[in-house]
Amino acid sequence: MRVLLISTDRTIFEEGSATRRRHRAYAKCFEELHVVSVSEGPMSAVRDGNLTIYPVPPYGAFFRSLSRRIQATFSIAGIISRYNIDVVTVQDPFEVGLAALVGMMGTKAKFHVQVHTDFLSPEYARLSFINRARVFISGFVLRRASRIRVVSERIKASIQDKYRLPVPITVLPIFTDVERKNVSSDEGLRRRFEKHKTKLLVVSRLEPEKNVALALHSFAESAPYDSCLIIVGSGRKRKALERQANFLGIRDRVYFEGHVDPTQYYVIADVILVTSQYEGYGLVIVEALAAGKPVLSTDVGIAREAGAIVASPEKFSDALAQWFKSGPREGHLKIHPYKNFEEYVRAYCDDVAESVRK
């Protein structure tokens, strides 16, 4: 079986990245796996065994996102024709899904759609006009799918309720390496923060939907002076969040670490805060609980099922204050769908293959 996957993850071009490892494993399940990455990358295709990755470079900053999607349609059409692709799978039902549909016109390839975002959450549409347009596009794309993969029961239920689709919808959560709990601490990192009795951690993209401002506000209102807030992640809101920390008078206890591997930060943290307005799954929640750390989260993604402490945005500060008083001091992951990475890969590849079999 020959598969074409449309991705938006730029780290697939990095030889040692988790994304490359994952796609290399997918490729072993198929005769050929071709990946069009709708992100900035090298100027020529990268070959790795029977895995081939094609970049779609942007032309100009202003129309960067749009230009990549338009170019992707031509790449998709050319690859389907040249390699006789059996199934096209896309990692979102929005612009990427629409680009794939256009590129597939006139072919016999089956269409497999993946949904990682809780796009039918009211909070998603409220954030921007672009998000509202994406909700509209998603209905058009999903109705033309041969099969749909979602990452949570929450998303499956919302799609079934909204669209009443006649095609199978499979719940396949994102794979999480739960062995993080066995990672030893980095002494240098531990010494750096040892002056703070309690260390709160946020691992997040610094984008509007992640609502990291809520973590800053709650920390300022409820955390004792001997605690600190460590923020791992990058994004457009960083400068605004730094200004907020200054305004709240907590800048000397807030650490912006940028985009780094959070593994060692889970080890030293006492509690992880997740303040998102919506989540498709909630990978950080699972990672933190697997590392034995308690999680205080808004009611998003898998938070309740996984074992996080759940609080509404309005009660988040109160919930944090309560955590300081009575804990819990340990986290316990209640559910994990896969025994190992190989089991996840097999489930994923089987789902893609079923698009053709059915």
Automatic annotation (TrEMBL):
PANTHER family recorded: SULFOQUINOVOSYL TRANSFERASE SQD2
Domain Glycosyl transferase family residue range list: 194-325
Pfam families linked to this entry: Glyco_transf_4, Glycos_transf_1
UniProt organism field: Candidatus Kaiserbacteria bacterium RIFCSPLOWO2_01_FULL_54_13
Protein name: Glycosyl transferase family 1 domain-containing protein
Residue ranges of domain Glycosyltransferase subfamily 4-like N-terminal in the record: 32-180
Domain of life: Bacteria
InterPro entries for this protein: Glyco_trans_1 (IPR001296), Glyco_trans_4-like_N (IPR028098), Glycosyltransferase_grp1 (IPR050194)
GO terms assigned for molecular function: hexosyltransferase activity
